Amino acid sequence: MFPSTSTMAIVDTLLVTANVAFFYAILIWLLLHTLRQSKLQRAVFLQQGPKFFSIITLLFNFILTLLTIAFAVHEYRTNKIVRYSSVTFALTWVMASLVSFYSMKKTTRDNKRFPFVLVLWWVWASIIEAISVSIGLMKNNFEYLDFWNFLSEDDNIVGVVSLPMLLLLLCLSFCAREEQHNTDMEQLLVHPGEEEEEDDDDEDGENFTTAGIWSQLTFRWLNPIFRKGRVQKLELAHIPDVPHSETAENASSLLEESLRKQKLEGASLAKAITSSVWKSLALNAVFAGVNTIASYMGPLLITYFVNFLVDDNSNSSIQCGLILAFIFFLSKTLESLSQRQWYFGAQRIGIRVRAALMTLIYSKSLMIKCAGPTHGKIINLVNVDVERIGDFCWYIHGVWLLPVQVILALVILYINLGFLPSISALAVTILVMVCNTPLANMQEKLHSKIMEAKDTRIKMTSETMKNIRILKLHSWESTFLQKLLQLRDTEKSWLQKYLYTCSAVATLFWTSPTLVSVVTFGICILVNTELTAATVLSALATFRILQEPIYNLPELISMIAQTKVSLDRIQELINEEDQNQFMNKHSSKDSSIVIEIKPSEYAWETSDGTNKKPTIQITENLKIKKGQKVAVCGSVGSGKSSLLCCMLGEIPLVSGTLIKVYGTRSYVPQSPWIQSGTVRENILFGKEMNKDFYESVLDGCALHQDINMWGDGDLNIVEERGINLSGGQKQRIQLARAVYNDSDIYFLDDPFSAVDAHTGTHLFKKCLMQLLSEKTVVYATHQLEFLEAADLILVMKDGKIVESGRYKELIACPNCEFVRQMAAHEKTINQINPWHEENSISCRPLQKNQIEVAEENLQESISNWKRNKEEEAETGRVKWSVYSTFVTSAYRGSLVPVILLCQILFQVMQMGSNYWISWAAEQTGRVTKGMLMGTFVLLSGGSSIFILGRTVLMAVVAVETAQRLFHGMITSVFRAPVSFFDTTPSSRILSRSSTDQSTIDTDIPYRLAGLVFALIQLLSIIMLMSQVAWQVILVFLVVFAISIWYQAYYITTARELARMVGIRKAPILHHFSESIAGAATIRCFNQEQIFMTKIKDLVDEYSRVAFHNYATMEWLSVRINFLFNLVFYFVLIILVTLPRSAIDPSLAGLVATYGLNLNVLQAWVIWNLCNVENKMISVERILQFSSIPSEAPLIIQDCRPEPEWPMEGKIELQNIHIQYDPAGPMVLKGVTCTFPGRKKIGVVGRTGSGKSTLVQALFRVVEPLEGKILIDGVHISKIGLQDLRSKLGIIPQDPTLFLGTVRTNLDPLEQHADKELWEVLKKCHLAEIVRQDPRLLDAPVAENGENWSVGQRQLVCLARLLLKKRRILVLDEATASIDTATDNLIQKTIREETSECTVITVAHRIPTVIDNDLVLVLDEGTIAEYDEPDQLLQNNTSSFSKLVSEFLRRSSPK
Question: Do residues 1182 and 996 lie in contact, with contact meaning Cβ atoms separated by under 8 Å?
Answer without folding.
Answer: yes
